[in-house]
């Protein structure tokens, strides 16, 4: 499931390959991922346009052009891939956009979200809906201002995109684990120091695990550490871990709950999450 680190990685992929490049061809292989345009209109509005600087708002990826802004949301299984112009397209490659000496490929098995085109700022705001501040770069004071007076469990509030943009189920577990705060703790009991701890856990954990490129064979649930290139995998109920230190559950095993368990033996994490 793509979360904030993945989407930031996709933004960097765009930054590396398409800025100031012209779109020479667009192929819509599956109309089902286009949310507000017909295939013909989508192609017509993008071909011949030139990409600008990409941006990200929470889990949304924005790719402005000198015409409309191309908006991505990756849902549960979406990914963005940079490929050579002569590569073979795969089964779940839904849209291909030829740019410069390669092409961007939007791949998505389940098609739960997709692609939009925004003609102006009002159109973009309508697509994005109400969004809280981005989870990266948020101060502890700003976080406390956003959540003051709110009820409900801490994890549920963190996953509310109107409160804080970018955190989903998996990453919320990981951030709370690193902050040593129980996910069911009521938000009204949060102290200022807890807000600062959450911000540090979020920014210090998410940012280094964003990568600028993804190979065609890597699933959406994998990213790579930008510092040491260590492969990071995501195991449901455990969180993001270096592949060599993950104790992967047996095939078909289901976590008992969505609350993060104790660290697996050999992971080197230690510590009491519930303290």
State the fourth-level CATH superfamily of the largest domain. Answer: MutM-like, N-terminal
Shape call: elongated
CATH level 1 class label of the largest domain: Alpha Beta
How many individual domains? 2
Q: How would you characterize the largest beta sheet?
A: 4 strands, antiparallel
CATH architecture of the largest domain, by name, is Alpha-Beta Barrel
- Stretches where pLDDT falls below 50 for ≥5 residues? 205-275
Q: Which strand order spans the largest sheet, edge to edge or round the barrel?
A: 1-6-7-5
Number of strands: 11
Q: How much is the average pLDDT?
A: 76
Q: What's the N-to-C terminus distance?
A: 29 Å
Give the helix tally.
7
Characterization of this structure:
It is a single chain. This protein is α+β, with helices and mostly antiparallel strands. The chain folds into 2 domains: 4-128, Alpha-Beta Barrel (N-terminal domain of MutM-like DNA repair proteins); 140-207, Helicase, Ruva Protein, domain 3 (Orthogonal Bundle). Helix content is 25%, strand content 21%. The protein has 7 helices and 11 strands. The protein has a 4-stranded antiparallel β-sheet, with helices on one face. Strand 10 (231-235) and strand 11 form a beta hairpin. The protein is elongated. It starts with a helix and ends in a 33-residue tail after the last strand.
